[in-house]
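Example protein
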Amino acid sequence: MGTEPLTNQASDRAHGIVDKLESTLSDVEGTVRDVSSQASEQAEALNREAQTMAAESLKKIEQFVKEKPVQAVGIAFAAGILTAVLMRKR
């Protein structure tokens, strides 16, 4: 009978703690969602930028090959030899 108020107090405190924890977890979830969304947007922007840079590089390489085909073949040959040498060392 005298312990009933203590039980109620303990129960009230436990409920208060659970409520605070729920609120905190809800805030954390919102923050995680925001950060995730921002990271996704940044990744998409970096992907678009990388694709643009790759396309520009490919155009430059194509232009170089059209303008100087002999030099392009020589560079490709040298790159092949270098690659073969490096692969043998492994």
Observations:
- The chain has two helices and no strands.
- The chain has a mean pLDDT of 92.
- The CA atoms of residues 19 and 50 lie 46 Å apart.
- The longest helix spans residues 4-67.
